[in-house]
Design a protein that fits this description.
It is built from 17 helices and no strands. By secondary structure, the chain is mostly helical. The protein has a single domain, classed as Na+/H+ antiporter like fold (Up-down Bundle). Helix 11 packs antiparallel against helix 12.
Length: about 400
């Protein structure tokens, strides 16, 4: 058997086992599993053990990192697809005003805070913009998990927070795509106009296909005497949207995957698709994505004043999210206590913040040192959210929540 395949199989075994052990340990400590998987990646990466560069078991395979990165990129696509599949527009509309205001200000204030902080530390403008975007993201899964543990997901704070987190992520993904296009494109007004036209045409075309063609296609596929026809069709639609988003629309592939999830969530097959693809995604590809983030992050690269930047960004990330989302909730009609709860619940960054950082790193728009600082921010922000959110409910004993879609 090819030695490269053997090395890859050994690496996947190590990554998957380590990811699940780290996730289990994290949950046992009262933290979301994503935190443990990320920490495992940092332990296995160049920060500590340097699995890909120093382990004799893997034979120093120079192609191994690239192979794992391909699996990780599929993991990003599936992760965003499943995130879109989780969106229930009816729940979102019930808290539309609060979700819109808290989600928007929860992006604008951290974006401005991260950009200003980075510039004060002498970071270049383009890097500062992507740092601000990384600070703007909120993890829907981590927020939902924390709210379920507290039994408040079906309260107005829970629905408002979930809606704001989803709105936040949609806005950040669109801003990420736009920023990637602008800073990856050739200079000149004509070139930018073509890029914007491609984006608009893709969004319009994808929306038309998603609203009218996808439901019809899924109904026809269900009638075929083929095993797992519906999940396979959903996977094909996800990959086609992801490919078209980047190849035709000039946007990030994750935008197309997220849109595919949104449209398929409107069909009668959303639960079947989720149950089928979640096992594939969270059993193989997503753990590799999360661990691979740590494998790419070298915290040893943070040295000297870079540590001050990483710590400053972490502090700014926490306070700007509470202030931005909290003010949005207050403007939407929440009282001060519930606004504080919503703002605190929006602190966690998790997957989307990592996606922003990894996309920017892959495009050469941020340095390895900046990337490692952002990973440090994500770790700390994710870690402090559950205990802080519990603290805001210390005077109350919330009733158990009904199982929502996000369960």
């Amino acid at each position: 058997m090819d030695s490269e395949l053997l090395n890859f199989l050994a690496a996947v075994v190590v990554v998957l086992v380590a990811a699940k052990v780290g996730g289990y340990a994290s949950i046992r400590l009262g933290q979301p599993s994503v935190l443990g998987e990320l920490l495992v990646g940092i332990i296995l990466g160049p920060t500590l053990l340097n699995m890909l560069g120093a382990w004799p078991l893997l034979g120093g395979d120079e192609h191994l990192a690239a192979s794992l990165t391909l699996f990780a990129e599929i993991g990003v696509i599936l992760l965003m697809f499943l995130a879109g599949l989780e969106l229930d527009l009816r729940d979102l509309l019930r808290s539309g005003r609060v979700a819109g205001l808290a989600g928007t200000l929860g992006v604008v204030v951290p974006l401005a805070g991260g950009f200003i902080t980075a510039r004060l530390f002498g970071v270049e403008t383009v890097e500062a913009i992507f740092i601000g975007l990384a600070l703007s993201a909120t993890s829907v899964s981590i927020s939902a998990q924390t709210l379920m543990e507290l039994g408040v997901l079906r309260t107005k704070v829970g629905l408002g927070l979930l809606g704001a987190a989803v709105f936040d992520d949609i806005l950040v993904v669109l801003l990420l795509s736009g920023a990637s296009v602008v800073f990856g494109a050739a200079e000149g007004g004509a070139g930018l106009a073509v890029i914007l036209l491609r984006m608009v045409l893709f969004l319009a075309g994808a929306t038309g296909v998603g609203l009218f063609v996808v439901p019809w296609l899924m109904a026809r596929v269900e009638e075929l005497p083929v095993s797992q026809a519906v999940p396979t069709a959903a996977l094909v639609i996800c990959f086609v949207f992801a490919w078209a988003s980047e190849a035709l629309g000039g946007m990030a592939a994750i935008t197309g995957a997220f849109m595919a999830g949104l449209f398929l969530a409107r069909t009668a097959y959303d639960r079947q698709i989720e149950h089928s693809l979640a096992s594939l995604a969270y059993g193989l590809f997503v753990p590799i994505f999360l661990v691979n983030i740590g494998l790419q992050a070298n915290l040893r690269a943070i040295s000297g004043t870079a540590w001050f930047l990483a710590i400053a960004l972490t502090v700014v990330a926490i306070f700007t999210k509470v202030i931005g989302s909290g003010l949005g909730a207050l403007a939407g009609g929440f009282d001060r206590r519930d606004s504080l709860r919503l703002g605190v619940g929006m602190i966690s960054r998790g997957e989307v913040g990592l996606i922003v950082a990894s996309v920017a790193l892959g495009a050469g728009l941020i340095s390895q040192e900046i990337f490692s600082g952002v990973v440090f921010m994500v770790i700390v922000a994710t870690l402090v959210t559950p205990p802080l959110l519990r603290l805001t409910y210390r005077d109350e004993a919330p009733a158990p929540a009904a199982n929502p879609r996000t369960d």
